Amino acid sequence: MSTVTNYTRTFEDFSGTGLSNDFMPVRKEAFKRFSAKGFPTTKDEEWKYTNIAAVAAGEFRPTESTNTVSLAAIDPFLLAGTSIHRLVFINGNYVEALSNVKALPAGVIFGKLSENRTHSAVKKHLAAIAGKSSGAMVDLNTAFIAEGAFVFVPANVCIDEPVHLLFVNDTTAHPTMVSPRNLFVAETGAKVQIIESFHSIGTVNHGFTNAVTEVVTEKNALLDLTKVQLENSAAYHIGFTAARQHSQSEFHITTITLDGAIVRNNLNILLAEEHCTAYLYGLYCVNGNQLVDNHSLVDHAVPNCQSNELYKGIIDEKGQGVFNGKIFVRKDAQKTNAYQSNKNILLSDDASMNTKPQLEIFADDVKCSHGTTTGQLDEEALFYLRSRGIGEDNAKAFLNTAFAGDVIQKIAFEPLRDRLMEMMQKKLKRQSL
Amino acid sequence: MLTIKNLHARIEEKEILRGLSLDIKPGEVHAIMGPNGSGKSTLASVLAGREDYEVTDGTISFNNEDLLEMSPEDRARKGLFLAFQYPVEIPGVSNANFLKTAVNEIRKSRGQEAMDSKDFLAMMKEKMKLVEMDKAMTQRSVNEGFSGGEKKRNEVFQMAMLEPSLCVLDETDSGLDIDALRIVANGVNALRDKNRSFVVITHYQRLLDYIVPDVVHVLYKGRIVKTGTKELALELEEKGYDWIKEEVESAAI
Asked: ipTM of the predicted structure?
């Protein structure tokens, strides 16, 4: 049984928003479940390599203070040269002065969740996609439901430019806990690209982000999500993204982790109706004493769906990487195509990677494959580059960029792609981001 | 330009070069022939600075500098180029981007300014003609999915771009059909001039019909055991290596 005492007090003190009040019974139940389970420990198979005792023991608490952060302070987090819609949340609270929402097509909602608490989609889906059986960390988030982003694209509406959600954890005053709760719904035939980026300010105190994002793609919809984790080396980040796909819909998700002390990205995709496609891409560059853990689950519940997963990692210094990729193909899910690949490069003797593909196939007419590789930099290629006059550091950067770059290349929005390429190169040179 | 004296080198515990000496002057083309396992590729690897090989004795002087003290990249920057027997595929790195970086790192080491994109493209266009390469090949990832012939053409193309003073060709003819061999040899011949030297390592005489050497050496058991003119290569083609081996063995008794 883990220590939840700190969090019990915090829960009782938490006032939240109107949404928090509406969801009071759900929140209370969630906290009860969380209290019973406690924080996961390394004895739990799902958390075997990821020790979050520091989160359990920490005195993190939510804060309503946002006024410390200026536009100049978040400027480095914005995508320079673009003027895309953005919602900015400081310590979980929406800050209108920092956000930028322009005119949107009729019926499109790109705003804060609390303001849309009576929306039918919120009532229907919130805490239903990531629900009671999604684990203790989702329960903890649900217990603190207060704010987040609500993106709703009605039937047959297509939004060309991505919308950007920025979550900034400012830990200057005290160790803060933020529990963003996002809901994205693409109705029949709708198309939208969403960027979620996580940042932090301050390294004196630790920050704890416990984020949950729920995604629904209705028939024929396409939802493209890029999650970028850039919180600093004092940050604990636990994220849970859960998607439910309806017939013939597409969901693309690219999870990029470039910073953070301990980062756990959970991704659960339920292919609930036929002819759906899910693309899961991931990249993690880990160094120092960082730990980055990606856990994914694709549930092929029905026939004729396709999932394609590629995660790549570069681990340097004393960094630790973890990958666990589950694919369930249920008994009825014939004609499933499911592919999974995890490739890693270890750049130092102290770097480590634990990877576990986990395919559970109960149907007999399926095409499924998985592969995982963990190795060093290709010495032959390195020598080849050096023999052409390219210095060793540059040659390594070339090879690492080539290795990891193809994940970033999957991102459709060019300014984001360029920015991430640049940041990845910095990271590979062990520069601060 | 290149003076090798009493070179001994080994890989792991196995000694492969056992007292090799060689002297190459500017503008000369030296062919190094020899049976399998005689140490030809080891010589190429040691010259280029491959770390798997340990030099246990002897010296290599390149333009009056100690080559063995230099990193592989410094050797390239000082003008040494190895055309690989097995060029490496590097997915995700475009040929053009790779070469631009290489050209500019070499220029930087010589105190020259970086080449801008326009001049670089013009240079590529000119050098591509030497080996009948098309633009698409320069945009592809380095050697990825290239045929054997394309890989060797790409080696000579890189050689043309980097303008080295000493070119080491390690079995450049291996795996080439006659047309590809002609293209590669023409490319090499176009690069011959009075200041640029070549070490052409080959098992077969065929390549030397196209790239005519000034001197032919026979390497056997890690040493140069015979040196002659291009006629020596013809003799080897005709009679094989056994008579050389016999000569060496009987001299040893």
From this structure: 0.96
